[in-house]
Each structure stands twice: as structure tokens, then as C-alpha cells.
Amino acid sequence: MDSQTAVATQTADDASVTGRLKPNSLGVLGILFFVLSAQAPLTGIAGAVPIAIAIGNGAGAPATYLAAGVIVLLFSVGFVAMGRHVVDAGAFYTYIGKGLGRSAGSGSAAVALFAYCAVQACMYGLYGSIVSGVVERHTGTHVAWWVWALVTMAVVQVLGASGIEMGARILAVFVLAEFSILIVFALVTLFKGGGPEGLGLADSFAPSAALQGAPGVALMFAVASMFGFEATAIYGEEAREPHRTVPRATYLSVAVVTGFFAFTSWMLVSAHGPSRATAEAGQALESGDAAAFVFAPIAAQFGGWVDDVLPVLLATSLFAGLLAFHNSANRYLFSLGREGLLPHRLTALNRRHSPWAAGTVQTAIAVLLVTPFAVLGKDPVLTLFSWFSGVAVLGIMLLYFLTSVSVIVFFRRSGADTRPWNTLIAPALGALGIAGAIWLIVANFTTLIGGDRTTALWLQATVPAVLILGVVTARLTRPRAAATHETESAC
């Protein structure tokens, strides 16, 4: 009898361990590196900035990044306020569920998981293409993009299972490398007084400059470049003193990302010259190598060796993003398993307290998403990257909007926090800004994905379809979820 009691006690202890991620594993800087990795700074600069300048508002694009940062900052105020009362690896869907109900929360969980998996899949397409080109350029050996993608999936799976601390260390190296070369370029350009036409401060930040051309298109790409900061809350369960760490990491992430994109894009415009930047960005797009708009002035500043280094840094930038989104997605799967909305086996942790089962499923999803494009011989950049990045941006922006509304409803109903700015004014302003961004994304979705109108409509339809699927799943699994909560409470 004593041995049976001991076994039962040990089993209960194991269950309690498998239900929680490893606490006190990440500080502010560790979370910050995950956020910056998810945003893949070099990829955002080399991919989005030339488009925002060429078909957006030209030299006024840097001001658009500031505007996007203000919208995200307003959203963050309510996001942080909610985070002080809710700490869970599910983040978005947990927050939305607290304010708008379990069905809305489950629907948003499906959208979040879909968006994170989609953005990771699209990054595999671009990553595979870039690595294939770099290897062929230096060795003369051509290896298909999808081979590199599959090999990297295995590496990401291993690193994801190695513990959150290991991932943070690796990401820190890659993020610092890509940040360093861009910031050094921007600072050198600033201290030299800018490019052929000077710094061009008014040309980039004056209201008339910001509103020229198609500022809505530029804002769309600016917002698309900045999402990923919400991962601060996803790691709350693994953070040291989450009620302090998560808010600090969130605000620091928004400030760093906004300042980085605005400053670097300004220096790029200055390096080309405000009067010539739009035309030269357009030429880069027409040539099929948008990154040339970014790489050329950096090479002119530091020498030809940059042309060999930057493609490698672009690949490592994408690799860091792949690892970051893998960690975000598997924590969503873990949290959904813990809630009873998905099989409970997804809550299994290894000795490093990493959700290895959820990570394995997430890697399998990545394989399933990438394989059809490889089998059908589709261009990984023009289809896989373009299509899935558009869907991911639309899905994440919908979650931002629902979270802002949920924050208002939650605090009006609970009275847990009565500060008007934090729980009503800022979330409402953020929701209005995000709603405007969503409208711009939908109106310009064909441009965002670089495809045709029919493809755009089908891709847009996937987001509400996934939302509805999540709501239906929640209603069907309600009894099982309730039973899971009762079991956990008993433990």
C-alpha cells in the first residue's frame, strides 16, 4: 500500500511538472532577443523598406514607421495592463477569452496558431531560396531550396527542444550581428551628414512628406514589419518576475523596433538622396532584387566585402526568426493542450522543461505547409513567402484588434484596474489605429502578396474560416476542457 501511495504521489508530482513551463528562465534581455528575432530586422529592412518607398510615400516612409510605432505603443498599454492580471503561454487567446468569452478566445487561438505557422512557413521559403543562392555562389553547387528548408526544420526542432535558455543565447548572437552592421551604417551616415543631399530630415519626417504618394500602403508594410513583439507575453510563464519583466520587455521592444526601423530607413533614404530614393527603390524592385536598394549604399560605405556578408546575415536573420516563431507556436500548442482544446499529450515536457511534443507537431505542420510548394515546383519567394506572409499579417492584426477590445471589456466588467488611460483610452485609440491598418491591408492585399485578385480573396478568406473553425472546436470540446480544468484543480 505504501509503495502504491508513493507511486501515486510521484505521478501527481510529474503531472504538475509537465503542466508548467520552466519558470525564472528569461529576463528582459532574453525576451527582447526573442522578439527582435521574430521580427528579423535585416529581413524587414531589406524586404519591406524598398517597397514602402517605391510604391508608398517615397522619402516619407521613415515617418510611417514612427506612426506604426505609435499605433503599436497604444496597443501595448492595454496589452501590458492585461498581462499584469493574466500570465499564460497562450497570451492572445487567453487575453481575448478573458474579455470576450471562451468561444472568442478559442477562435483567436486558432488564428494565432495559424498565423505563427504561416509566417514560419513563409520564412522557410525565403530562407531556402537565399541559402541556395549563397551556397551556389560560393561553391558552384546547386541544392534545391526545399532541401535547405527541411534540413533547417530539423535543426530548429533540436534547438527548440534544448531549452529556452539555449534558444535565447543563439538568437542573441544572430540578432546582434544583423543589428550591428545596420546600426553602424546608419550612424556613420548620420555623422557624415547624410548622403548627396544631406540628412533630409524634413524630406522624411515633415507632415507633407509623410502624406505624399500612397501613405496607406507604406503604413501597411511598416505595421507588417513590426509584429512579433507580442511574444513578450507568451514567455511570461518562463520569465523572472513576469509582472515586472513582461511589461518592461514589451515597452522596450516597441521602442527599440520603432527607433530602429525609423532611423535606419531614414539613413537609407538619405544615402540615396530624398529626390532619388523612390526611383532607385523602384528600379531595385523591377530588377527582382529589392535588397539591392539596401545593400548597395552599405557596400559603398564599407567596401565590396559587404556584398558577401550581407546575404549570409540575411540568412541568419531568417534562421533566428524561424527559431523564434517555432518557440511561439509550440507554446500555443502546449497551452491549448493544457486547456483541453487539443490533445493533452501536447503538454509533455522534456528534462529541460521544453514542450517537445508541441514542438514536434509544430515542425510537422511546417513540413506540411512547405511540401506542396516544393512538389509543385512553385517559386518559394513569389508564392510561399508572399502568400503566407500576407495571411500572417492579416491574422495577427485581427488578434491585435480583438485583444484591444477585450482589454476594455475585461476591465470594465471586473474593475481589476480602474486607470482610464491604461484600460480604456489607450486601448480604444489602439483599436482604432489597428482597425485602420486592417482596412489598408485588406484594400491593398493584392499588393501585399504580389499576386492576383482571385488569389488574394482566397487567402483573405482563410483567416475568418480559421476563426470560425476555432469557435466550433471550442463548443465541441467544452465538456473535455471543463474536465481537464477539474483534474488540474484536483492535482
TrEMBL record:
Q: Which residues form a coiled coil?
A: none
* One Gene Ontology cellular component: plasma membrane
Membrane-traversing stretches: 26-53, 65-87, 108-131, 143-164, 171-191, 211-229, 249-269, 312-334, 355-375, 387-411, 423-445, 457-476
Predominant cellular place of this UniProt entry's protein: membrane
Q: Kindly list the GO molecular function terms attached to this UniProt entry.
A: transmembrane transporter activity
Q: What keywords are assigned to this protein?
A: Cell membrane, Membrane, Transmembrane, Transmembrane helix
Question: Membrane topology per the record?
Answer: Multi-pass membrane protein
InterPro entries given in the database record: AA/rel_permease1, APC_superfamily
User: Where does it localize?
Assistant: Cell membrane
The cross-references to PANTHER family, in alphabetical order and at most eight, read: AMINO ACID PERMEASE, AMINO ACID TRANSPORTER-RELATED
- Its name, as the record gives it, is APC family permease
